[in-house]
User: Fold this.
Amino acid sequence: MNNIVTVRRCKGYDLEEVYIHISDIYNTCNGPDLKNKKVLVKPNILLDDVPEKCISTHPVVVEAMIRFLQSNGATVFVGDSPSIHFRGFKPNRSGIAKVLEMTGVPWIDFSRKPMDMELKNGNIRIASITRDVDLIFSLPKFKNHELVYFTGAIKNTLGLVPGFSKAKQHALHQNRESFSRFLIDLNEAITPHFFLMDGIMGMEGSGPGQGTPFAAGVLIGSVNPVALDIVASTIAGYNPRDLPTNRIALSRGIWLHSYDELNYDGPDLRSVTKPDFKRIHVTPNTNISLKFLKNRFQFLRKLERRPVFNHDACTGCRECIKICPQNAINMDPVRQNYVLLSDRKCIRCFCCSEVCNHNAVAIKRKLIGV
Ligand code: SF4
Ligand code: SF4
Assistant:
């Protein structure tokens, strides 16, 4: 695997322009040979919502990638597993279903007959199409992530895990470090073969589902997931060493041994870096004594950023209740559309915020109440 990361400026979603950039990025990155290959394209579809909200990979990026693959002799399949994954799901609102219709590409439902895959620590269910294709192409979106700070190449691989088993991983890996280690384990077991990040429009603030659109103006490509994440998080204004997934991957030396090995191709990195991008506040996760105190004295947990429910905006759809891996949320039996949080049970995985389509779950510090 090479260490090349290619960045190209791209201001808008013009199909022809995006196609030309993809072709250039792919060749610069020495992407794998495509002739007669079966390729699974996996966009980032956290929730099926309109492209303007910047929750999912933009349909024009998906279309340009498909057309590039087809014109190079590949047979393409597209699939993903969003947070709310029901049988028969299709990404209609995001515009991706329409793209599939236009390009004649089938949508693959990952929840159909998933297979077991062995990880370092235990097994996981994974989409069985991954066994039937030659190559997997991952298309992450340039976004913040409340738990792991920034969602990139490493995080997007989680979408290969179907349905609720994704949220279950939060119950098994209950803090940022542990969840990040799991993500690296997963990527070690199944590494997509090429990554293209849609950073034309990204999401700042409370990502990956509740933030606000941000014009980052870049497309970023690599065959190397950690190299891509280092460059993308730098462009977002993070210190890439602060991201636990970067740190853990580098310490294992799986895809890259040090930052110096990275081979960058693109405009001066400082000229595309976005210091005004609203990042997730980075907090140390390794302070053992603070963790011990928080476990002993529950009121200290209120100092953490946590889900805070906006009862006026809540529609009572119950998606947050269904996804919560800790059963930490319930509906008030008396007040209508009034979600109650059991703070003692909550592990701050923020899945509830990810799935709420009504902006009714903010992530903030709130010292009083639930
Ligand atoms: S908080 Fe959001 S996800 Fe939960 S019930 Fe209300 S509207 Fe639905
Ligand atoms: S309440 Fe939200 S943040 Fe807390 S455990 Fe449940 S899904 Fe995770």
About this structure: Residues 318 and 331 are 8 Å apart (CA to CA). The pocket of iron/sulfur cluster (ligand 2) is lined by residues 307, 324, 326, 328-329, 341, 346-352 (CB under 6 Å).
